[in-house]
């Protein structure tokens, strides 16, 4: 793996996490797995369990529902030859729910994007490659729920920033990964 | 058509059915059309009518809201030189609604995926090519309705399995079909 | 810019407008910007302001919530060396809300598509290139709201027609634009 930062995006159950895990498994040494999910109900427990069953038992797991930049820096100081961060959209959800009602809409977006920038900067500063998983959430109709619209906006901006920071960007559809940064049109 | 199994995916009204029909029309003989829609209201009647008006009158239509593997085997034993199955997502919906409340969530997913595996196996065993149409349903925000979330998960898994079984996979956006399996990154 | 009509599609906050603005900025002279948004609340005001802050101050702005074909013809008769139309989906929303309840469902679709055809014809008749921005809205689950389903259908048809009229079609994901018409599979 020569790329330092890799972004893997796709819809729900598109196979993006599986593809990202296969990428990470190519590392010539230990893999650090950074999980962002917060288990607050039965359904989320089920989703997290499905992910865990699939991962090699020897991967070191870090929990990073918040302050993921610090957790990533810690993981990069360990023996990991690759770091898998799954995922940016859940992390964005955690930050948005934490900030909701305490600060204004503009401040929420600014603070979340600043946190994402710190995370991406940490990834670029390490020596091991970091693979970020994210979700495409903006190709349905406009949600009726205002918080969902706000989330959709921020998640889109997060993905754009991650794609700028990434050396490679993969879009996964039906389990098939296409490299979209290499073939993108640059103006 | 040298491919045995072809998957055509895309969003609602992306032109995926039209593209799949054009693919089927290239067959050097009769085409079997397998319809999965259940007409339970006026709107669905309208949607089905729109599809039917577009298809050549001489195509043989099979109805397969359930047991589609058996229907596909039957169609493949007839004179058809190509089979068009439209679509996997509606078929998944039918199975999910049939199973809802009678078995557990895990069993619903397992039974639906087993049914899809039987369908894909039937397609691979025939001599005529089979074109499956499906939908991308996972690129919006997480639905608030639990059954919709469950459906979205299963539909994503169905698409991944279909893409594994397919020789060619097309993603249709704005009526434009791109072959995504040929160009996919394999690890 | 040799293309006469260019279509730029993508999800919400995918970077499609930014990419379209960069395309327009390549013109060797003044740019006409045709805005379709109707500001009916605080949130829409915020969205429109974000777009405006990003555009060069010397671009000439036209408002076209309705009768966009006439506005486009007017813009094409001016000094503009490129026209940016942002966006087809908002324009479709305006027309649909205007027609809702006054005519039948079939008539709404027919009238909107006729208006889009007039708009695309106007674009093809001008000498300056016209860049249309649109949204992918059909890759989430089926909306529960009937008007949202109707909108989703019409928006998909609008995108297909625009892609037929366009010389180039770009899909933007995570800020990365891929040319999808050039590489499309033609039957």
Structural features, described:
Chain A is α/β, with parallel strands linked by helices. In chain A, 46% of the residues lie in helices and 18% in strands. Chain A contains six helices and seven strands. The first copy, chain A, has a seven-stranded mixed β-sheet with strand order 3-2-4-5-1-6-7, with helices on both faces. In chain A, β2, α2 and β3 form a beta-alpha-beta unit. The longest helix of chain A is centred in the middle third of the chain and has 21 residues, at 105-125. The first copy, chain A, is globular, with a radius of gyration of 16 Å. At the A-C interface, α6 of A face α1, α6 and β7 of C.
Task: Furnish the topology, listing elements before pairings.
3 copies of one chain form a homotrimer.
Chain A: E1 5-10, H1 16-25, E2 31-35, H2 42-54, E3 60-63, H3 68-77, E4 82-86, H4 88-99, H5 105-125, E5 130-133, H6 146-165, E6 168-173, E7 176-179
Parallel strand pairs in A: 1-5, 1-6, 2-3, 2-4, 4-5
Antiparallel strand pairs in A: 6-7
Helix pairs in contact in A: 3-5, 4-5, 4-6, 5-6
In short:
Chain A has helices spanning 16-25, 42-54, 68-77, 88-99, 105-125, 146-165, and strands spanning 5-10, 31-35, 60-63, 82-86, 130-133, 168-173, 176-179.
